[in-house]
TrEMBL record:
Designated name of the protein: Uncharacterized protein
Protein's organism: Sphaerodactylus townsendi
Length: 80
């Protein structure tokens, strides 16, 4: 189950580390493969369900990326 689906009150207890991010990326890969397969079979309802999950995962990853400091923007003792 994606960390995205963890209730808000428990989400702060979930540590976002490289392993968590990698699992989400792997899940997204699988979701995309399923979406393509269902599209090829003409099964739109299943596509939509997986597209919603993929969208939620992507929004979560984007939120994490925005909250993370960019490389090179961290303040050092020399820059103060």
């Amino acid at each position: 189950m994606s960390v995205v689906f963890v209730p808000e009150k428990l989400r702060s207890k979930v540590e976002v580390n490289q392993e968590t991010l990698q699992r989400l990326l792997e899940e997204n890969d699988q979701l995309i493969r399923c979406i393509v397969e269902y599209q090829n079979k003409g099964r739109a309802a299943e596509c939509v369900q997986h597209q919603h999950t993929l969208h939620r995962n992507l929004i979560y990853l984007a939120t994490i990326a925005e909250a993370s400091p960019s490389p090179g923007t961290e303040k050092t003792a020399d820059s103060v």
